[in-house]
Amino acid sequence: MPAISGKSESSNARSSRRGRRALLKGLLLSAALSMVALSIFHNVASRRLCALRCSRTNELAAKVNESLSEARFQISALIRLPIVQRTAAGDLPSDNPLAVSALKTMKMILRGAIVYEMNLKGDVVACSPYGGEGEKTLTGKNYAFSPYFVKAAKGAKSVVLALDVTTNKRGVYFSAPIRKNGVIVGVLVIQKSVLDIDRFFGLYTDGKALLLSKDGVVFLSNIQSWLFKTAYPINEERRRTLRFSKQFADERLTPLPIHLDAAQVTYNSDIYDVTEAGVAVKGWKVVTLTPSGKDYPYGLAALMALMITL
After folding, report:
1. 155-164: which pairs have CB atoms within 8 A and are 24 or more residues apart?
2. pLDDT tens-digit profile of 143-171?
């Protein structure tokens, strides 16, 4: 009897060990399945979040491009008018009624833009009146230093986003050479306000939104204190060149507290995902900073892990 009892206890011990091993294997298998499932879930969720961030950034870029497209067409039509050509060439006096009338009509079509033409010296020779009662004009001012004049005077159409040195307002400058009998005699400029785009950026609530120049200067943002600061490192020589061009008037172009040259950045101890989308001005782009993990379905991930474990 004692021998039989010993064998029974030994058999029970082996059975107990086999049971524990089976339980351990089951737990390990369950944990492995949970890790695989959560890894797949995380990859899918991350791709969807990335697509969502790109979609929202592209919406901002599309709004910028929409604002740019209308004036491009109108400026091509205006430079063909003989009255515009003769005024730029000096055949007619500055601010003659017919030229001003044509510029005013274009201003009304473009809803609040300032339209003017310059001779080859950079002097404004005709301008659509602006101001509360139309009492202001740019006629007589010289913008020979401006990038949009320099490019157009050499025969190229251009789009320049800049801070006006006279009105101290941000605008988009569309410029084109005025030709008379095939010879460049002046430059036509349509200066369009960015208020509609600025409002759209102001409505962005998923994080921080910026429109950056090719040098990384912040031109539009839902963070007003970031305007005309630089998002990328700029050497002092380039900074002096930008200041001399007056594209951003007399702004100092000091650096932002962060550089946006990485996929993720840290600002005030928070981590942000950086997303970019180009716009229809060479080198310019919309950049958004979204808090890392925003909109991630943490609750669903936890629920999935619990269900697999059970």
Report:
1. 155/184, 157/75, 159/68, 159/72, 159/280, 159/281, 160/247, 161/194, 161/211, 161/213, 161/219, 161/281, 161/284, 162/246, 162/247, 162/248, 162/249, 163/228, 163/247, 163/248, 163/249, 163/251, 164/191, 164/249
2. 998 889 999 999 999 999 999 888 889 99
Which phi and psi angles does 126 have, rounded to 5°? -160, 140
Phi, psi of 130 (to 5 degrees): -140, 180
Q: Give residue-wise pLDDT tens across range 203-249.
A: 999 899 999 999 999 999 999 999 999 999 999 999 999 988 889 99
As given in the structure block, the two tokens for residue 211 are 């429109």
- 123 and 145 Cβ atoms separated by less than 8 Å: no
Structure tokens at 172: 């988009």
Cα–Cα separations (whole angstroms), residue 222 to 167, 201, 260: 22, 6, 16
Nearest partner of 184 among 174, 172, 173, 176, judged by Cα: 176
Q: Is the pTM of this model over 0.85?
A: no
